[in-house]
Every structure is written in C-alpha cells, then in structure tokens.
Amino acid sequence: MKTKKIGFIGGGNMASSLMSGLCASGHAPSQIWVSDINQDTLQTLSSTLNVNISVSNAAVINEVDVIVLAVKPQVLRTVVQDFALLLQQKKVLVVSIAAGISQTSLQQWLGDNIAIVRCMPNTPALVLTGATALHANNNVDEQQRDLAENILRAVGISLWVEQESELDTVTAVSGSGPAYYFLLMEAMETAAVEMGLTRETARLLIQQTALGAAKIALESEDSPQQLRQRVTSPNGTTQHAIETFEQGNFSQLVSKALGAAKSRSIEMSKEYGETQ
Q: What does the pLDDT look like over 156-166, one tens digit per residue?
C-alpha cells in the first residue's frame, strides 16, 4: 500500500486528516497529491505535510493510482464531470467520502466501468479515532479493496458493509453519532453547573468520564448492557439516574433520532444524486 500514489480532490478537514494519518503511518508525502481551488489551503498542506499540491484536478489524476473525492456533496457532480473522461482512460480507483452521494450517481457521472468505493467516515477521524464503513461496487478488485481500507484505517477503524443501503444506517449511527455524545455532554455540563460545579470542573469531569467509558467498552468483551448493569448498584445513585432516563423513554427517543438521521441520509442521496 505504501508504494501506491494517492490523490485527493479537495483539501478540507477530512482530506487533511486522511493525509496526516497516512503520513503518520509511514506513507511517503511524496506519494500523496492534493488539488483544491483554495491556494491558502494548498499552501498549508504543503508546509505542514510536504505533500504535492495543485490547482488542477487533472494534474493530480494523471499522477496517482487512487483518487479520494473529498469535496462537498452539493458540488460533487459538477466537479467530477469535468474529469470523468480522464478517469475512464486512467482506470484509477475512486474512493468517495462525500455524504449522500450513491454509487449509482457516481457511476452515472463517471462511467459504469469505474471502480468505486463509497465510504462514510466521521469527524473523530480529525483526531485519528474515526470509524468508517465502506462499500465497493462490482468493479473493485481485492487489491483495490485493501487499498481503500488502508487509506481509511489511517484515521481509525474501517469495516465493510454488504449492502450500500447500510451506509444510510451507518450515517445515523457513527456519521452523526459524535454529535449525540456532545449533546449528552452538553446537557450534563449544564446540569452540573446548575448543581454547583464550576463549568471548567464539570467539563473536565464529563470529558474524562466519556473517554473512560468508551475505553472500557472498547477493551471489554461484554455488551453495553452488561457494562451498565455492572456499575449500577441496587437502589444506588446510578440506578436512580437510569430509571429517570427510562421514565423519559430514553431508548425510544434514541431510536426515533437515529431513524430521522437515516431518513435524511436517504433524502440527501436523492437531492444531490443522479436526478440533479
């Protein structure tokens, strides 16, 4: 994988994180190219990561074995149609991290013969603790699957889903998921301040508690339910708090929220996709 040349169309936060992760994992910066319309963005990437930069998408495509599409989904169609013919000639792997853009749309814009891997990363990739789900179309071979997986693994975990439609659920779970935890942390912080803690103390305690709980869950073979039960003493403080959550239909509310996120993901595919 380290001998492959990787190009990024778009140099925003997620692309920058992927490039940083690749460099940190041993991929030579000289083997990474990025194009962007913003000169300041390019200069920053050049100075911090020492990667190759260009304002020309075509120049990047001509140099690489795989292209990562990292532009906003609203403009992706316009961007990719400018170099669709070149991609067909080069036959490079295309990895898309554009939310809501289906493989059907990408194939319609780029051509049916293009090898495409669609990914759903999340913002913790910015601190190299991301979670990414991937789906490949039928044109992707095993070597290309390994390549795509290794690119995304540079910023966290990556796993494959069998059906592309599963990415809508992934969007609801891990794509939007960090905001759910931030919302809970925000609510806990507000409550703690109202009960007398300083905001600084409350925030630090909540952040470390969230980190610790996640670490325990990652390192344990037990389910979240088992872990919760283990720290919930009968008639103790935790039990009273959990019962209060349940009285407010916490589980049903979470299910409803994830359902809303999934529905919006499906709607976005239609809004930004092949029917544009």
A: 999 999 999 99
